[in-house]
Design brief:
474 residues, alpha+beta, Protein Transport Mog1p, Chain A, 2 domains, 7-stranded antiparallel beta sheet, 19 strands, elongated, membrane
Length: 474
C-alpha cells in the first residue's frame, strides 16, 4: 500500500492556518492597553475547517464506492480460478478419452462390486500429477493404509478458491446416473452422447457441506442435482455454481434453473434442444430476465434500475434508467452477470462483464459502478485526483501505480489508471480502470486480469471499457 492516507481530502486547501498573535502589548512596551491586533489567521482557519467537514462525507462515499468493487473483484478472481480448474479437469477427461477411447467410469470396483477408486484419481496423469498417480495402489481401496500418503496430498485443481475445505478435499463432483456420462463402473464413449456434448453436463461444483476427499469414489446423484439453490451447483459463489459440459466448456448455472432444465443437462441421449438460454456467466446465449426496479437480481440479466432495449445483432443491450447510459455486449462471447451481494447492500447499479478466455489469453473481468453525483458532492470533483485516491486505496501487496492519464473512450473524456499488485488467492493482477462523470453520475469501470497475461494497453481491456462505458442510445 502507498504511504498516503487513502481517505485524505483531494479537494481541501493545502494552505496551513496562520498562527494567532497574542493579546497585550508587545514585549518591552509595558502599561499601554489598546485594542487587540486583528486576528488575521482566523478566517482562513475557519474556511479550512468548514471545507474539511464538508468533504469528509464525500471521501467516505468515494471510499465506500471502491470497497464493494474490490470485494467483488476478489470474488470474481476466485470465480475465474474456479472456472479454470474445471477447464483443466475437462481437458484431462478428454485427454483420457483420447488415450483409452472412453471417458473414465465414475469409479472402479473390486471383484465383489465394491467401489475402489474415483475418476479423479484415474485422470491424475493428465493433470500433470504422474508422480502422485504412481503413489496409488489401485489394487487396494482408496482409504487403505498403503494409500494414506496419496490420499492426504492436496491437488490444487480440485479445490475451488471460494470454498473453504480441507486441503485434500474437493467440491468438484460428477453426476452418477444410468443415462449420464458417469454411471457407476461403466465407462462412456463420446459418441454415445447423442444429445450433444455442449448440452450434457459431466462435473458440477458443490458447497463445502458436500465436500469429499478427492480420492473417495463418491459423487452426487440426479436427486441432489435437481434441488435448485440447495445442494446442486451451490458452490461458494453468489447466485449459482459452475458446471463442466461434455465438450469441455465451463458454464455458470443459476440457482433458478428448473428441475426440467437440470434433467435435460444430465441425460446424454435425449434431444431436449439445449439449455443455453438458462445459463448466465460464461454462456454464449444468455438472455435478459424480467428486469425490474426492485433490486431483485434473481433472474438472468437483471440489474437494479436497468431496462432491456432492442437486442442488436452483436449482443444484448441494457440501459441504466437514471443516468441514461446504454451498455452493449460487444460479441456473443460476452454475458452480463449481477453482483447480488454488492448490489443488495449498496444503492449502486453493479454490473460484472465476464469475457471468456481462449487459447490466446485468459479471462478478463470488468466491473461497472454507477453513483449519482448528487449523493456525493454539489461541487465539481477533480477526476484525476479522485482516480489517484482510488488507485492508492486499493488493498494489494507489492502494489505499483503504473499510469494515470486522460483518455478518450466512446467519445468521452475519462481518467484511466493502471495498477498492478498481488491479491490473496488470485496471484498478481493488473487493473486497468476508468473514472468519469456523465449526466450528473459518476462512473467507474474496473477491468482486471492476470498481470503476466495482460499488458496495460491490452486490447481486451479496451473491449471491456467500450462495453461498460456510457454510450448514446441508438
Amino acid at each position: 500500500m502507498s504511504g498516503q492516507d487513502p481517505f485524505s481530502d483531494p479537494f481541501a486547501s493545502q494552505q496551513s492556518p496562520k498562527g494567532i498573535p497574542p493579546l497585550g502589548p508587545p514585549p518591552g512596551q509595558p502599561g499601554q492597553i489598546g485594542p487587540p491586533p486583528a486576528k488575521k489567521g482566523m478566517s482562513s482557519c475557519l474556511i479550512a475547517a468548514i471545507c474539511l467537514f464538508a468533504f469528509i462525507p464525500i471521501l467516505g462515499v468515494c471510499a465506500g464506492l471502491l470497497l464493494p468493487a474490490v470485494q467483488a473483484a476478489r470474488e470474481a478472481a476466485r470465480r475465474v480460478n474456479c472456472s479454470n480448474n474445471l477447464k483443466q479437469i475437462g481437458l484431462a477427461l478428454h485427454n483420457y478419452h483420447s488415450a483409452y477411447q472412453t471417458f473414465p467410469p465414475a469409479y472402479t470396483v473390486d471383484q465383489n462390486g465394491r467401489p475402489m477408486h474415483s475418476w479423479r484419481a484415474m485422470i491424475l496423469p493428465f493433470l500433470e500429477q504422474q508422480a502422485l498417480y504412481e503413489q496409488i495402489d489401485f489394487n487396494k481401496p482408496w482409504d487403505h493404509p498403503d494409500n494414506q500418503a496419496a490420499m492426504s496430498s492436496a491437488v490444487s485443481v480440485y479445490s475451488c478458491p471460494s470454498t473453504v475445505v480441507e486441503p485434500n478435499y474437493t467440491t468438484y463432483l460428477a453426476i452418477d446416473h444410468p443415462n449420464g456420462v458417469f454411471s457407476g463402473s461403466r465407462p462412456t464413449r463420446i459418441n454415445k452422447i447423442t444429445d450433444g456434448t455442449a448440452n450434457t453436463v459431466m462435473v458440477v461444483e458443490h458447497d463445502s457441506g458436500f465436500a469429499v476427499p478427492w480420492m473417495q469414489p463418491q459423487d452426487i446423484d440426479m436427486n441432489q442435482f435437481l434441488q435448485p439453490g440447495i445442494a446442486s451447483t451451490a458452490g461458494g459463489h453468489p447466485g449459482g455454481g459452475h458446471v463442466l459440459m461434455s465438450d469441455g466448456a465451463v458454464q455458470f448455472l443459476t440457482h433458478s434453473a428448473s428441475a426440467e432444465i437440470r434433467t435435460s443437462m444430465v441425460i446424454m441421449n435425449e434431444d431436449e434442444g439445449g439449455i443455453a438460454p438458462m445459463l448466465d456467466a460464461t454462456s454464449t446465449e444468455a438472455v435478459p430476465g424480467d428486469l425490474s426496479n426492485t433490486g431483485d437480481l434473481s433472474n438472468t440479466g437483471d440489474l437494479p434500475n436497468m431496462d432491456d432495449t432492442a437486442v442488436p445483432a452483436d449482443g444484448i443491450s441494457f440501459r441504466h434508467r437514471p443516468s441514461g447510459a446504454r451498455f452493449v455486449r460487444p460479441s456473443q462471447e460476452w454475458s452480463l452477470l449481477t453482483g447480488r451481494a454488492a448490489a443488495s447492500v449498496n444503492p449502486i447499479a453493479n454490473a460484472v462483464l465476464l469475457h471468456n478466455g481462449n487459447d490466446n489469453h485468459r479471462e478478463r473481468i470488468g466491473i461497472l459502478i454507477i453513483e449519482s453525483l448528487a449523493d456525493i458532492s454539489s461541487e465539481p470533483i477533480d477526476m484525476k485526483q479522485l482516480a489517484m485516491n482510488l488507485a492508492e486505496s486499493m488493498e494489494m501487496e507489492n502494489k505499483t501505480i503504473e499510469d494515470i492519464e486522460e483518455a478518450d473512450v466512446n467519445g468521452l473524456s475519462v481518467i484511466r489508471y493502471v495498477v498492478a499488485g498481488d491479491v490473496t488467492d488470485a496471484g498478481r493482477l493488473r487493473y486497468c480502470c476508468l473514472v468519469f462523470e456523465k449526466n450528473e453520475f459518476l462512473f467507474q469501470v474496473i477491468a482486471f486480469a492476470a498481470a503476466d497475461d495482460a499488458e496495460a494497453d491490452d486490447q481486451h481491456f479496451r473491449s471491456i471499457h467500450q462495453a461498460l462505458t456510457f454510450a448514446s442510445s441508438p
